[in-house]
Amino acid sequence: MTALPLADRLIVGLDVPSVDEARVVVDTLGDLVTFYKVGMQLQFVGGLALAQELARSGKKVFLDVKLLDIDNTVAHGVEGIAAMGMTFCTIHAYPKAMRAAVAGRGSAPLRLLGVTVLTSMDDADLAAAGYHRTAADLVVARARDAAAAGMDGIVCSAAEVAAVRAAVGPDLALVTPGIRPAGAAAGDQRRVATPAEAIRAGADHLVVARPILAAPDRRAAAAAILEEIDRAL
């Protein structure tokens, strides 16, 4: 992969209950942050329009829709997302869904990410869901499927980054949620890491929401994470 600008390595999750609050976050962070994630919570209250607004303003947008449906529906959904000017879009990492997404994307610059195993899940959660693999094994298997399907990257925890790199090489973008600065509460996340741990393991982009959104000084919290990323590179 080509070298990434430092600012592009931090993706701030706009996991807030309204578009107005999301705009406050963006205004507060200003030119410090170039990349935002618009996920399910915000999508259902007007976030899709905001995502397009952010893209038009020059921000990069990770539209976290986690698509999974019949091939035709996934392909046409991705075709529509590609026309919105998004940078990243997520697909659950099932081989058929990923192949359909790649076909729907066509030659558009939209980059497709396969969601492997949610960072809120551990081996016990997978067993309860009927999987007979550990999280680490399933992430690597799905990363291989993503590479074979022509996807641009995957979403995985920092714990699996080194194994994924060994399995698929340097070309897939590895996007890592579950990032918690030292001393921060894990919340509902199970497989977490500090920003430095994730970068040193080989992650390309870190998705951070609550440690910034819940901070008394959001801009200072984001700046501290960027400084930690820079030191770890």
UniProtKB/TrEMBL annotation:
Record note on quaternary structure: Homodimer.
Keywords, comma-separated and alphabetical: Decarboxylase, Lyase, Pyrimidine biosynthesis
HAMAP family, A to Z: OMPdecase_type1_B
InterPro entries the record matches: Aldolase_TIM, OMPdecase, OMPdecase_AS, OMPdecase_bac, OMPdeCOase_dom, RibuloseP-bd_barrel
Protein name according to UniProt: Orotidine 5'-phosphate decarboxylase
Residues at which substrate binds: 15, 37, 64-73, 119, 180, 189, 209-210
Documented EC number(s): 4.1.1.23
UniProt KW Glycosyltransferase keyword: no
Pfam families recorded: OMPdecase
One BP annotation, GO: 'de novo' pyrimidine nucleobase biosynthetic process
Pathway involvement of the protein, from the record: Pyrimidine metabolism; UMP biosynthesis via de novo pathway; UMP from orotate: step 2/2
The keyword Hydrolase belongs to this UniProt entry's keyword annotation: no
Gene from which the chain derives: pyrF
Organism: Prosthecomicrobium pneumaticum
Domain of life: Bacteria
SMART domains per UniProt: OMPdecase
PANTHER family assigned: OROTIDINE 5'-PHOSPHATE DECARBOXYLASE (PTHR32119)
Organismal lineage: Bacteria, Pseudomonadati, Pseudomonadota, Alphaproteobacteria, Hyphomicrobiales
